[in-house]
Each structure stands twice: as structure tokens, then as C-alpha cells.
Amino acid sequence: MIASPPPPSLRNLKNACCFSPFILGSSYHHRVISVQSQRTWRPVMFLNQKPTVKDGVLSINGRDALAGVPDNVVVTPWTDSSAFLGATSAHSTSRHVFKLGVIQDARFLCLFRFKIFWMIPRVGNSGSDIPAETQMLLLEAKEETTYIVFLPVLNGEFRSSLQGNSANELEFCVESGDPAIVASESLNAVFVNCGNNPFDLMTESMKILEKYTGTFTIREQKQASQFTN
């Protein structure tokens, strides 16, 4: 009998590229991630459950994503496996930091902006490991072969980014950059999606956001410049 290949896992990613030495924290130095281009991904059947918050737990397609979700967090389902996350406040300001919930003992890969024009990766397993100005968070759910991606998006006059705190809580920061432009809520600040193949998950998520925002085109839809031929 031929054994089936192991499910995709952040634990199995190795030998491709070293993380930048600029990453803070010695525990992240020299960590290695790889992608096996010929890997066969094992399909997983989802139950097509709409994203919900129940008893303080955010579930995406039946998979627990965050615990300890505050009451002011708003979930707007978009597809069977995706939703927009936002939050409300009692006061208006040009900058809000909202808590989304707790991430603990769950492996993740994120991309964060460490300089104005540069992003680098970081890995961790709790909310406190997530740096400020995180632009993408790929979380490995405790159920094997399941991944959840969080993508902060532009929401009107406000930009969003992710970050963690010392209590292992995932937060999102929304800011207009102008003291005159204020708001008391941001309802579609973070896009979240779930899937069993991290590569297909990212592609699908960007296609959804392309249609939702109408402000960008994914690479496969762009026409190559003549000088590249």
C-alpha cells in the first residue's frame, strides 16, 4: 500500500528561504521555511458554515480562529468560508486600536512592515509574537490541514494593520492619518478566510478582495509590459 502524503503544515515547511536577520527576537533568527513545489495537497471537506461568533469564539467554516472575542467586534459573512471583521467604539477619533481575540498555542506566519517600504516575515505561536504593522497573518488552525488568513484592508478613509499585545490578543489598528477625519466604528477593516491549501487560500482571498475593493488587479490579470519580452 502506498502511504498518502502528509497534510500541509507549517511544521513541514523547510529548506527554502531564511528569515531576515532584521527580525526581532533571537528565537526567530535562522528559522527556515520552504515550499515543496511538487507537494500533493490532501483535500479536506468543509461543511460550509458561515463565520460566526458564539460564546466569545470566532469560528470560520467550523474552525475556531480566535477566543475571547469582545462584544464590540462585528462579523460580516462574505462567502461560506470568509468574512469581514470590524468593531465599534463609544467615541470618535482618527485612530482606534480594537481587540479581536486571543491567539495562543497556534503556529503562524506573518508579514509586517519594518520600514516604510519594506516587509519581512516572522513566525510565532501566540498573539504576543505578532509585531505592529502586520499586513498578512496566516494562522495554522489546531485542526490539521486547516489555515486561516487575516488581511487588513483599506476601509474608506482609514487604513488598517494587525498587531499583538502582551495578553496574546490579536488587535487591529485603524487610522486616517488626519485628526479632522474621525469615526467611531470600522466594520470592514480585516478580511478573514479559511482553507486547507495555504497557496490556494491566498490566491482566492486576493481575488475576493480584488472584486470587493475594485482598486487593484491581481498579477495574473495584469498585462505584461513590452520591455519584459
From TrEMBL:
Keywords: Carbohydrate metabolism. InterPro entries: Glycosyl_hydrolases_36 (IPR008811). It holds the Pfam family Raffinose_syn. This is Uncharacterized protein. It comes from Rhododendron griersonianum. The lineage of its organism: Eukaryota, Viridiplantae, Streptophyta, Embryophyta, Tracheophyta.
